[in-house]
Automatic annotation (TrEMBL):
PANTHER family noted in UniProt: DUF373 FAMILY PROTEIN (PTHR38815:SF1), HYPOTHETICAL MEMBRANE PROTEIN, CONSERVED, DUF373 FAMILY (PTHR38815)
Organism this protein belongs to: Natrarchaeobaculum sulfurireducens
Keyword match Membrane: yes
The entry's keywords: Membrane, Transmembrane, Transmembrane helix
Transmembrane segments: 158-176, 182-199, 219-240, 260-280, 300-321, 327-351
Source species taxonomy: Archaea, Methanobacteriati, Methanobacteriota, Stenosarchaea group, Halobacteria
Any Pfam family: DUF373
Name of protein: ABC-type multidrug transport system, permease component
Signal sequence bounds: none
């Protein structure tokens, strides 16, 4: 028996149509192909599946023993995707009811999907590999459209646009010596702006920014306190950075040049109280939203205490490096910070356990009455 395997390594079929895979059988595969063509007519995997159906019909008309199936991986397209394809091939082979030896004809739309061939070969002998190429894509008149589709595809634009953008950013560095001259300035500025645009396009920064704005808008209209907490925390972070820099300047004015450990200690010592306040603010905002949504768990209340514990420890260590406190204060602060975190964890764990037990006992007591 010849098994025609249509490979969809990035699982466009499952993600765009909701079909559960593997898809086995001529009628079921045709339904999947029509569903994928309806959801995304431009997807190349549509041609792969219809090519598999065409070969199936041709061989079936000759009274040959043949079956067709579609196997998929996942959208990551890595080793995990190859493993999923292998598992689906095992499922297809187990579903075949034939006493004949089974061989496979693999149909793909490119080299990326063909990377899974060794996985398939380890499970069933392969008679051949057929790569589907759309004829219109070979014409010069469709080159612009093809390039546009490649650049719009999140799976390929990163590999094309990011290296090109980096090359365009390297070019202005070579013109630093003549940056103030008009030709060098114009060319360098144009190249830098174009490089930044290509990198942002390759990373999808525009889409991520749009999604972040949309999430913020939904949080604002939903009355979520998390959004307000993040804004306040951002302001506290800025104030913490300014305070840390002021402390560092004071230390440098008093002692001159200092080493890197002392510089880090000064930054932490001057900013830790602001950073701790930011951490407590965000955790309280998240706790408030969880409580309003009815999904609050007792262990969530540990977050503010953990922030305070870390702040106590960092404050004591930085103060010790700056000779503001002695070794006894450092030991006491380390002990206090550790005990605060442990006690809060144990306390809320006990309360949560007691609360769960009381709720579990409630229905039993009601039934007994």
């Amino acid at each position: 028996m010849l098994l025609i395997l249509c490979v969809d390594l990035d699982d466009d079929l499952g993600r765009k149509t909701g079909f559960s895979t593997p898809v086995i059988g001529r009628e079921t595969v045709e339904e999947a192909a029509v569903a994928l063509a309806t959801a995304d007519p431009e997807d190349s995997d549509v041609n792969v599946i219809f090519q598999g159906l065409h070969i199936y019909d041709d061989l079936d008309a000759r009274d040959e023993s043949v079956e067709v199936a579609v196997v998929t991986g996942n959208e990551n397209g890595d080793v995990a995707a190859n493993r999923e394809v292998g598992q689906e091939v095992d499922t297809v082979l187990a579903s075949l009811t034939t006493a004949e030896d089974v061989t496979a004809l693999v149909i793909t739309d490119g080299a990326q999907d063909e990377s899974v061939i060794p996985v398939i070969r380890s499970r069933v002998p392969i008679d051949g590999v057929r790569r589907v190429v759309v004829r219109q894509a070979q014409n010069l008149e469709s080159m612009y459209y093809t390039i546009k589709q490649v650049l719009d595809d999140p799976e390929t634009r990163g590999t094309v646009l990011i290296p090109l953008g980096i090359l365009l950013l390297i070019y202005p560095l070579a013109l630093i010596g003549s940056a103030l001259e008009m030709p060098g300035f114009v060319l360098g500025t144009t190249s830098a702006l174009l490089g930044l645009y290509l990198i942002s396009r390759g990373l999808g920064l525009g889409e991520r920014l749009d999604s972040a704005v949309e999430r913020g808008r939904r949080l604002l209209y939903a009355g979520r306190t998390t959004l307000l907490a993040y804004v306040v925390a951002a302001a506290l972070f800025v104030l913490g950075g300014v305070s840390g820099m002021n402390t560092l300047e004071s230390i440098q004015e008093a002692h001159g040049e200092v080493g890197i450990p002392v510089m880090l200690a000064a930054l932490v010592y001057g900013s830790i109280q602001w950073l701790a306040a930011a951490g407590v603010t965000t955790s309280l905002g998240q706790i408030t939203d969880e409580y309003i949504a009815g999904t609050l768990e007792w262990r969530y209340l540990n977050a503010p205490f953990y922030v305070l514990s870390i702040a106590i420890v960092l404050h004591a260590v930085s103060a010790f490096f700056l000779d503001e406190v002695g070794i006894s204060y450092l030991a006491a602060a380390l002990t206090a910070g550790t005990l605060l975190g442990i006690v809060s964890t144990l306390a809320f764990a006990v309360v949560e356990s007691w609360y769960d037990d009381s709720e579990a006992d409630g229905p039993r007591n009601a039934d007994s009455i």
